[in-house]
Amino acid sequence: MGRIVVHLHGRAKDAAFSMAISDYANRLSAEGVSLSEHRNRTDPEAYLKSIVEKAGKNNVIVLEEKGEILDSIGYAEKLKNWRLSSSDIHLVVGPPGGFGEYSEGMSSLSLGLITLPHELASVVLLEQLYRASTIIKGLPYHRA
Description:
Shape: globular
CATH superfamily: SPOUT methyltransferase, trefoil knot domain
Number of helices: 4
CATH class: Alpha Beta
Order of helices and strands: EHEHEHEEH
Structural class: alpha/beta
Number of strands: 5
Number of domains: 1
Largest sheet: 5 strands, parallel
């Protein structure tokens, strides 16, 4: 069974974001989702390279504007497939300036066409993963 690792570029400085990230991380821990916080001073190339070296390029999905756009049901389908995979999947939230050319040719997801601070993007991603897990379980959290 594959696990999902969400990589964050540094700790959230804003207390509200930090609390939301912690809350969703706690909710998701039983769902096979974990967080990995990286130093926020790491440049985009080194940040992404360190993850790819450990996980393998095929298991890394970066969050960026040009990525695949999913609705909540789409996230639930992805989560089901990731869980069935024999490999761990690594979702990588970028640094404030994005990944630039360093993510060329990599799998990617988008949270939409709007620009979000990376801390808020982390919260949105974690919320969607939590929502996806409740959809899979048939819980009433998601109401379409």
